[in-house]
Amino acid sequence: MQSPNIHRVSVLSVRYPFGRFIVISENEVPISMLLDRFQFGAFFSRIMVFALVYIRLKQP
Q1: What is the average pLDDT score of the chain?
Q2: Would you tell me how many other CB atoms lie within 10 Å of the CB of residue 24?
Q3: What is the C-alpha separation between 58 and 9, in angstroms, rounded?
């Protein structure tokens, strides 16, 4: 049985000429916006780990 308060976190990455613009949204509501001009891979994996931990903490 699934709990009704499921938190769906999505990460939107938009490329622009000087780097990338990253928007993290939870249930379609943006919770953080980041500008990334450097190592995108490691940075993105750190964001994903944070997002997963964040989801775990929000679970009852």
Answers
A1: 65
A2: 19
A3: 11
